[in-house]
Amino acid sequence: MVRSGTTVDQMVRAIADRIVTGYLRPGERLDEGSLAARFDVSRTPVREALGQLSAMGLVERRPNRGAIVAVITQEHLASMFESMAELEAICARFSAERMTSAERRSLELEHQGSARLVQLGAEEDYEYFNTDFHSRLYRGAHSTHIHDLTVTTRSRLAPFRRAQFMLPGRLAKSWQEHDVIVTAIMRGDGAAAGKAARDHVSIVSEASAVFAVPNPMESRLSLSVRR
Asked: What is the pTM of this model?
């Protein structure tokens, strides 16, 4: 039996992924009853999931008219990633300056171990590693305020950051970008770590742009992605 909290998380992830990859198109109605039947839950967790998706900017909730898939433009997505890049740069710089020896060793070991996931082409496993890798940088900054700001911003971009791994060659490139960040942190070079993290998120932004519409008047791009 799946716990109710987990059910909501699963619904948010599943619906978000279908929106980002174009299976649910901008303006498409999200019927609570249909979603409840699909996920075999009551309408209450569906409403909670739609509320979270609305907070992420993926769903538009209209009074007395229900919810529809929001239009996510490349301009808006780039703006969010721009903020994300600066926050991650701060976290990486602080991590290089503030991480304990144990935190550095753990980060390096996890990073080196993830190379196996790249070799296997294990997209889903690497995506979970990727989330943990970045979370270590946020915690390693040892700044509660910066941590909370970064986590909040990342949560809005999470579906796009997951989707990037569907693109050919992205797994290996992501690992290489992480390697530059880890190397700088292990050296205690805050400036280099910050630059590497900023560059990394900027590349993710460019890769993720394919999952947004060029402008509000155009339909979402049709993507041939491997599910």
From this structure: 0.80
